[in-house]
Amino acid sequence: MKNYFFMLFLATGTIANAAPFTDGNSENGKRLFAQYECSSCHEGKMGGDGSAIFTRPDHKVRSAADLIPQIKFCSGMVGAHLTPQEEQDLAAHLNQTYYHFK
Q: Does residue 51 contact residue 98 with C-beta atoms inside 8 Å?
């Protein structure tokens, strides 16, 4: 019985530490980022370098769990109707490029 609980504990720890957005395709996310001209909106908000929106001290996305809701908000602002898979793809791209959440 002790072995069962030990194995369950190990499995739970592995799941909790799994990398986020593993079902996402970062290359497709990069394409979506360009297709919906995300940088142009970010450039307007940041007054130049649009990528600074991801790294500014007061950025809104603080964890992997924050990223999809922010993507939903932003895509709604530009009228993009992303599928759940496209949200995962975009999140994978943004995480790989800027956030590096584990």
A: yes
Q: How far apart are CA 29 and CA 73, in angstroms?
A: 16
Distance, in Å, from the CA atom of 90 to the CA atom of 6, rounded to the nearest integer, reads 36
Q: Give pLDDT tens digits for 28-41.
A: 999 999 999 998 88
Please write the tens of the pLDDT for every residue from 48-80. 889 999 988 888 999 999 999 999 999 998 899
The CA angle 16-83-89, to the nearest 5 degrees, is: 50
Is the Cβ–Cβ distance between 75 and 35 less than 8 Å? no
- The stretches of 36-82 forming alpha helices (DSSP H) are 38-46, 52-55, 64-77
pTM of the model as a whole: 0.79
Whole-angstrom distance, CA of residue 98 vs CA of residue 20: 14
The 3-state DSSP class for residue 1 equals coil
